[in-house]
Prior knowledge:
Mean pLDDT: 83
Order of helices and strands: EEEEEEEEEEHHEEE
CATH topology of the largest domain: Lipocalin
Strand content: 25-35%
Radius of gyration: 25 Å
Amino acid sequence: MDLNAGAVLNIVLSEDLSSEKNVSGDLFTASLGSPLVIDGFVIADRGARVEGRVVDARRSGKVKGAAALVLELSNLETADGQIIPIQTDPFTKHARRGHRKDAAKIGTAASIGAIIGAAVSGGSGAAIGAAIGGGAATGGVLLTRGAPADLPAESRLPFRVSRTVTITERIY
């Protein structure tokens, strides 16, 4: 029987994965989220063990470059106990970009600076305070890394099989 290229395997992660702690080459485990049925035969039960590896784990940059986590599946355990090597297209998880949060931090700091400057020196102090507050917040944003790309345990992920695999039944 063939597990054809293009078939989708829905898996459930067994562990947390993150662009902050994982590196390229790390292995991970998961389970099938639904049975794998080919030509009416259950090849692998729901919950069957699936193994994969981290292809790439990029941390967020301080100025630009969102974090990303790229995964592929490598092995599937069948209902009769065989470990079948498989190849899948990469699954990529990108971190959320924090541009709105960054802008809010800068705007809030500039407003606070303007209020303090106005209280101390009047109108010209407000402008100076706004510039100082906004500049300080901008510096803080530039020194802070963005959010990681996280996939918590129990995440459900789809993987597309990239190469057809022939699966033969084990004879006892």
